[in-house]
Amino acid sequence: MHNILLTTLHSGSLNVNAGGPALSMSLTLKGLEKAGVKTVALCEQIPSDGKLIAPDLNVRFTHSGKYGTFAYVDNIHECLKKAVDVDIYHIHGTWMHHGLAISRYARKVEKPYVVSPRGMLYPQALAHHALLKKVMMKLYQKKVFAEAACVQATCKEEMEYYRALGFKNPVAVLPNPIDINGVIDREIPKKPIFNVGYLGRLHPRKRVERLIYAFNELKRVKECRLVIIGGGDKAYQTFLEAEVKRLKIENVVEFTGFLTGKEKDDAITGLSLLVVPSDFENFGNIVTEALVRGVPVIASRGMPWQELEEHHCGWWIDNGQESINQTLLEAAALPNEKRMRMGVNGKRLMYENYSVEVLGKKMKRLYEWILHGGEKPEFVYE
């Protein structure tokens, strides 16, 4: 194993409004720094309604992106030239100009690069603006992937979707990291009321209404509250609030909006159960944020979270309304002691497999293998 200091440059978004991708990128960089890898983040300027998710990272800003999804950045080449002595480049995300520009620059300076698609190659994601994405794939994105030294998938399912597109280069299966420090060692508090929660962006594809309808059934048999943590699509939030009023449950349902820091920590810690009702998610940082706090999770089979059942820390279910209804009733009927044991199991899973420190060391091993060869890491598939 080589102990020389590596310098890596990462491109993507660190705007808190980007949600999961920004959190994943920031924690990846923190893990690398703890593993002794120097990191530089190259991100576009944070808009006035945004916020830098990790001010303690080494971040350099480009001009703002233009032209929709492509997000053309007019000065990215100049910014890349200023970042000297980079050993390896890492592109976080798909379709955008920064990925194309960095892949071209890396080839020009004869340095390898890694790509993390961030769930953007799932069939459901490709179906959104399908024609545009087919054109973009043919024009440039196919080349970006094909010439990467390695692609990082967060689970084997994502790797299989990548392979199905015909790509043959190495794939590293590494989940998104979770920050366990200051959280993992806490005792799981007892909750006087059964608090059901949703955490994440509010968007029609998240299907939060399913949880509202399931909660409406639950409240008829058990004292409980529903906490919806997050914001996003204003029209969709208005629809959800209207449904809550129609069902006459507004006195036991709370919309908190986006939360950060201690407010977010307190809100998640106070949950008895987290439910992820969407049809699909690439990974779901929200699941790890709940499990590290000892909160069991109900997630649909549209997510790669069979570990919930394998490690007895949640439920992995069909994503229909009836299935969510029945599972929520089943979870609420469990004795508190059994739910607490599930919470402990979730914490153990996070500590052993998902911590920033564990995944930072694995990412470092990946970079060293790409740069120097040697024994292939067990998480890399060729």
UniProtKB/TrEMBL annotation:
Keywords, A to Z, come to: Glycosyltransferase, Transferase
Q: Tell me one Pfam family matched here.
A: Glyco_trans_4_4
Report the residue ranges that make up the Glycosyl transferase family domain in this protein: 196-348
Give the molecular function GO annotations. Answer: hexosyltransferase activity
State which Enzyme Commission number(s) the record gives: 2.4.-.-
Which residue ranges does the record assign to the Glycosyltransferase subfamily 4-like N-terminal domain? Answer: 19-176
* Superkingdom: Bacteria
The name on file for this protein is Glycosyltransferase
